[in-house]
Amino acid sequence: MSRPFASVRARATLAATLVVAVALVAAGTAVLLSLRSNLLGEAGTQAERSAREVATGLAFAKPYDDLPLDVDDRPVQVVDEEGRLVAASEDLERISGTGVDAVKPQPAATARDGGDDDDDAADAADDDDDHGESLEPGEIGARTTVSDGSATIDGDTEDYRFAAVPVETEDRGRLTVYAGAPLSAEHGAVNTALTVMLIGFPVLLAVVAWVTWLVTRRALRPVEGIRREMAAITASEDLARRVPVPDTHDEVARLASTTNETLTALESSVERQRRFVADASHELRSPIASLRTQLEVAAAHPELLDLDGAVEDTVRLQRLAADLLLLARLDAGERPADARVDLAALAREAAEGRRGVRVRAEEDVTVAGSRGQLERVLANLLDNAQRHARSAVEVSVRRDEGPHGAGGGGQAAVVAVADDGEGVPAADRERIFERFVRLDAARSRDDGGAGLGLAIARDVALRHGGTLTVRDTPAGGALFELRLPGA
Predict the structure, then answer these.
(1) Which helix (H) or strand (E) holds 442?
(2) What is the pTM of this model?
(3) In whole angstroms, what is the distance from residue 315 CA to residue 336 CA?
(4) Which run of H or E residues covers position 296?
């Protein structure tokens, strides 16, 4: 079952919007909590200031009527140590949160004979005294108790933060002043901030989503151009085309450059393959045509049959087919076998029966690989050396502690094949390892071969983790050096 298509732009926009939404919710919550805490603290400070102002008057023995009980229409209660309300704001109609629900001062006798409400108030006052502090007459307590509640003043009901401040008087004993500060500012500010967030956050998220969509579209526009060009290359099979490289020097530009490098390598590979097929067809055509001609002549005139020539063309055709098959296997990535091969013994076997070939080999020079492929390398190198030597070819096999090509450092096995011919020009020392390349264009195909021997030798060397290079000998001939990692 196929999955629904989701573009990178859509996923990026959704992810960015979700991240910003989470951040906004967290930041908004922190702002609201901080704002509420600061406003509650400020309300508590205002309530404490009002309570201490009244307590100061009591400490100086002012009458209840001279106390600032009705400043800014804030609720104020004065309670004695028996829990009796002795003074209160004039327009106070209801109050909760202070522990004393009475709103009108009552005579002492009434307070003593009062019901359960006064008993509850006295209990609340006793609780406060239990947690109070020892004070001298005329001293105001340093400790302030804060609580939240509500009050109704002149018909208006609001929430308040109350501060309770104890004061010790000379003639009236210990009194407790309850003063409240309205929380309307706190509620208004928090509600306003919440409203702004509820309206602003969706708008901000919409802006973030829109900007992210535009930015990702602009950022991914080169990618879409690369995709279109790759689709066109696939449709046209024109590997000479290249994708556009944006002038941004970023990951997309590097992707386009890498894509073009891949296309270049692919074009080169395809071109080599086409050239290989064309050259192989050309090389196969000659022995096949020659063999056909000889057979047709023999069919018409049996007495003219050139049996030796037919056998020679057949052997040449067989060798060419074997070379092409080996190259095809190497191109397909065939891994060499992991057998131990004695290069000294292999060199002696390859030189056996060849005129003018001398072998100098150290003992126990072994490598890991395919004996058949390495045998083909030595045979090709000897065939090439004998073809260009004047009189002698020398093969040396030794161990070397130096680097061995792709394998890096460590012990290497070296096979050197030197001839006393004219050598290889410096400009052609890499070209001779290309397929179907023959430097002497005037020589015959029978003498020069198909130009595959050195190409096969280098490919096998590379497959075994080694190298195959050529340079001049001190006498001026060619020296081919095969360097492989030791077993």
Answers:
(1) none
(2) 0.52
(3) 26
(4) helix 251-300
> Mean pLDDT: which of 2-6, 109-113, 184-188, 288-292 is highest?
184-188
Within 13 Å, how many C-alpha atoms sit on residue 48's CB side?
A: 14
- pLDDT category, 273, cuts 50, 70, 90? confident
List, in order of start, the domains of the chain with CATH numbers: 7-221 (3.30.450.20), 251-331 (1.10.287.130), 339-485 (3.30.565.10)
CA pair distance 243, 357, nearest whole angstrom: 55
Contact present, 148 and 164 (Cβ < 8 Å): no
Q: Burial-class residue 236 by CB neighbours within 10 Å (0-12, 13-18, 19+).
A: exposed
Task: Read off the DSSP letter of residue 429.
Answer: T
Helix (H, G, I), strand (E, B) or coil at 409: coil
DSSP string, 75-104: -EEEEETTS-EEEE-TTEEEEESSS----S
pLDDT exceeds cutoff 70 at 6: no
Report residue 338 as tokens. Answer: 């992991």
Q: How far apart are CA 51 and CA 71, in angstroms?
A: 11
- Provide the pLDDT confidence category of residue 1 given band limits of 50, 70 and 90: very low
Measured distance CA(314)–CA(477) in Å, rounded = 33
Which DSSP string corresponds to 336-384? PP-EEEEHHHHHHHHHTT-TTEEEEE-S--EEEE-HHHHHHHHHHHHHH
Nearest to 415 by CA among 369, 367, 371: 367
